[in-house]
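Have a close read of this protein, sequence plus structure tokens, and explain what the tokens say about the fold. Thanks in advance:
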Amino acid sequence: MLTVDFSWFSMVGGSTCLDVGCGEGRHALAAYTRSSANVVGIDLSRDDVRTAHSRISDMQASEPPGKVNFTQGDATQLPFSDASFDRVICSEVLEHIPNYLSVIEELVRVLKPGGRLCVSVPRAWPEQLCWWLSSAYHNTPGGHIRIFSRRFLRTEIIRHGLQCYHEHGAHALHVPYWWLRCLFWSKGETHPLVSGYHRLLVWDLLKRPWLTHWFDKLCNPWLGKSIVMYFNKPGLLSNIAALDDER
């Protein structure tokens, strides 16, 4: 399930991409399979990094293939040099981290001039309802510790010197699932409404039916669970970015 729309974050052969807080590797592996880019995923969880590594052999990369690798590390202290990457992804991460400003600073630091950054966080009003329905939802260790307004986060990233060129919502179909999950939190996924809706989501991911596709498309601007924002870093365009613009 991808949150980043790669049509707004195009990858070019030979470019470098960093996925910060990569989890089990969904966006890093997607970037790898969609281009001959060299991709690195980094996450604090050793178990997630191991899982991401195990999935590399299952992916069909483009020809000629780039490279993908995963490493454990802290998003507030990225182990990379300044201006190391043409593309940087940080999807559904900032809401988990107490010192999120340090993460933003690191994202900007490792991004090349002329590069692009994609950041996504949960949309504020569906997230607020989840918090209201279940205190356990946001008190779970490693869970969400803050709610970002779209305008606040966009302004904060712009304040760090970047320019926002696009934003959209994503995963509207998933919002009712999380409301049900929070409403029946003590039952977990065993509650029939929760398990039933989960089956719907799995069916949607596997079959890609037109009905749910259009539901997402129509509802994402106001209901999408995630807000996704895309930024440019001003400066002289690298050769990779210039090639991208020509496309």
Remarks:
- The two ends are 26 Å apart (CA to CA).
- The CA atoms of residues 46 and 69 lie 14 Å apart.
- The chain is about 40% helix and 20% strand.
- The first strand starts at residue 16 and ends at 20.
